[in-house]
Design goal:
Elements: E1 4-6, H1 20-24, H2 37-63, H3 81-93, E2 96-98, E3 104-106, H4 108-121, H5 132-137, E4 146-147, H6 148-171, E5 178-180, H7 181-191, H8 206-221, E6 228-230, H9 231-235, H10 238-244, H11 250-253, H12 256-261, H13 266-282, H14 294-305, H15 310-320, H16 330-346, H17 354-365, H18 375-381, H19 384-392, H20 394-401, H21 403-415
Antiparallel strand pairs: 1-2, 2-3, 3-4, 5-6
Protein name: Serine/threonine-protein phosphatase 2A regulatory subunit B'' subunit TON2
Keywords: Calcium, Cytoplasm
Subcellular location: Cytoplasm
């Protein structure tokens, strides 16, 4: 048995042979077994929204009018930042340290004790996280213990998603489970003061920032371009996670490169605006000569930056499908690569045969129909983003042509 050290000596850790609770615990899981944090978040959200609806009905019956602050009281049903801090302290003070790994862990007896302490200090709203079914979700060691960090991160994620779900539902004017662009922009605007990397944003830039930020959600969560995005899809998207990363203090925790790569960072939004302005000023005839509006420009940038995603590749395929037939032929590849080939030669690179490039693309994609490449073929081959880069950007083709050298350069620092 691996030795363990108590943070506070509340009794010795029982030997594995005495842990009948590890087996007996499964009897008490019940219908909650197998529910992931997203499902639990959805159930909790429905419960809170139902409470809001009942309170709304009651107030309407009693007074005929609803105070605008009634929804704020529902925040008492969720853990706030202070509650989460208190829970973390409780977890650390009542766990055991695995001497072999240094990981902070707890068994089910610790889990129940922490639940009691948290309920005393925080209140009954934290009790639902300490259910037997929740304990059984996490990976256990040979002694039946789980690490406290994954559990705490699970609590934070569930609380964050539930709060976001409630906030978005309050902005959903027609209560159809979808947000329109102005509603999504309002949600983002409300987050800005709470995001460390955005709270000092110039006031004059906030409206433009919200427009840029909301557009990424619709690019990925509204694939059919209906003008509204499903709230559930937004909550489970990588976009929301990327936005929430801006909680980190930029000066200490985030590098300039990471800021630039995050679409939702202030640096990225300002870069996009500056580039758009540069393109606009570079066109003859002023703004009237522009070939795409700002929203279309954002779509184009998002597609280029996310070529390996189904959404990005779908957008780029529509651009490559010059005749709108839903497929590319060998003649299309020849036409598309012609300009890249010219730039390649002008850059002083070696002469290459377009037919060889065409054959290489066919070998990469392995289309179901040997005479044509479809979007489904590009998605299935897992190299669609690379193929698109080869056809639209000489730098993309150069990166593919030098992929072995680039890979070797990336590995060299690790060998030193």
């Amino acid at each position: 048995m691996v030795k363990a050290t108590k943070h506070r000596h509340r009794g010795r850790f029982p030997p594995p042979s005495s842990m009948l609770w590890v087996r007996n615990l499964r009897r008490y899981i019940g219908s909650g077994a197998g529910l992931g944090s997203e499902a639990l978040m959805e159930l909790e959200t429905k419960r809170i929204l139902l409470d809001i609806f009942k309170e709304k009905q009651q107030k309407s019956a009693e007074a005929g009018t609803i105070p605008s602050f009634y929804k704020k009281k529902q925040s008492d049903l969720l853990l706030n930042a202070d509650d989460l801090d208190a829970m973390w302290v409780c977890l650390r003070e009542n766990c055991v340290i695995d001497d072999a790994t240094g990981a902070e862990k707890m068994n089910y007896e610790d889990f129940c004790h922490i639940a009691s302490v948290c309920t005393e200090q925080i209140g009954p709203k934290c009790r639902r996280f300490f259910s037997p079914s929740n304990f059984m979700k996490f990976e256990k060691d040979e002694s039946g213990r789980i690490a406290i960090l994954p559990f705490y991160l699970y609590v934070m994620r569930t609380v964050s998603l539930t709060q976001a779900r409630i906030d978005m539902s309050e902005l959903d004017e027609d209560s159809d489970g979808f947000l329109q662009s102005h509603e999504m922009e309002a949600y983002i605007r409300g987050l800005i003061p709470n995001l460390a990397q955005l709270r000092d944003m110039p006031t004059a830039f906030i409206q433009m920032y919200c427009r840029i930020a909301a557009h990424k959600f619709f690019f990925f969560c509204d694939p059919h371009r209906r003008g509204k995005a499903c709230i559930k899809k937004i909550l489970l998207s990588n976009c929301l996670q990327e936005l929430m990363e801006l909680h980190q203090e930029s000066e200490e925790e985030v590098t300039d490169t990471e800021q630039a790569e995050n679409w939702f960072s202030l640096t990225s939004a300002q870069r996009i605006c500056a580039f758009d302005e540069h393109v606009r000023s570079g066109k003859s005839g002023g703004n009237n000569a522009r070939e795409m509006d700002f929203e279309s420009f954002l779509d184009f940038v998002l597609a280029l930056e996310n070529k390996d995603t189904p959404e990005g590749l779908t957008y780029l395929f529509r651009c490559l499908d010059l005749h709108g037939r839903g497929f590319l032929t060998t003649a299309d590849i020849h036409t598309l690569f012609r300009d890249v080939h010219q730039k390649w030669i002008e850059g002083g690179n070696y002469e290459l045969c377009i037919e060889d490039v065409r054959d290489e693309i066919w070998d990469m994609v392995k289309p179901a129909d040997p005479l044509r490449i479809t979007l489904a073929d590009l998605l299935a081959c897992k190299q669609g983003g690379t193929v698109a880069s080869m056809l639209i950007d000489v730098r993309g083709f150069w990166a593919h042509d030098n992929r072995e050298n680039l890979l070797q350069e990336e590995e060299e620092p690790e060998e030193e």
